[in-house]
């Protein structure tokens, strides 16, 4: 057992930034500059006619969700008028980390995940394995 914690490079990094800071945190962690991320606004309309336009960062067409929860009434809004979801599936409730994993290669996603787990263990006072 060594006493190298004093120079632990992870100290001082905010715990939980991956989930707490959302996309901005993810951009910071992945080194992506917001300046080079294309904003992609998509308008969704819920069954009650509320419109919401979340802005997705640099997503391909197939990566953009078909439905989006209405911030006013909580119903699922649709990108395409006339179509409504038959059921609310887990697809609607992906975390930012899930989106990040989809956007990165599996190897990169595992690195992000391992890093996040390490942060979690440190926050709980556990020593990382190895
Ligand atoms: Zn609504």
Question: Which segments are poorly predicted (pLDDT under 50) over 5 or more consecutive residues?
Answer: none
Spell out the CATH superfamily: RNA polymerase-binding protein A
Assigned CATH class: Mainly Beta
Strand content: 5-15%
Gross morphology is elongated
Helix content: 25-40%
Tell me what you see in this structure.
Pfam families: RbpA (PF13397). Its cofactor is Zn(2+). The protein is built from four helices and six strands; from the N terminus they run H-H-E-E-E-E-E-E-H-H. It has 130 residues and is of the alpha+beta class. It has a single domain, classed as Rubrerythrin, domain 2 (Single Sheet). It is elongated and about 50 Å long. The chain binds zinc ion.
Index terms:
130 residues; two-stranded antiparallel ribbon; binds zinc ion; RNApol-bd_RbpA; bacterial-type RNA polymerase core enzyme binding; Rubredoxin_Fe_BS; RbpA_sf; transcription regulation
Short description:
The protein has 130 residues and is of the alpha+beta class.
SSE blueprint and pairings:
Blueprint: H1 17-20, H2 22-30, E1 39-41, E2 44-45, E3 51-52, E4 55-57, E5 67-69, E6 76-78, H3 96-103, H4 106-123
Antiparallel strand pairs: 1-4, 2-3, 5-6
Helix pairs in contact: 3-4
Bound molecules: zinc ion (ZN).
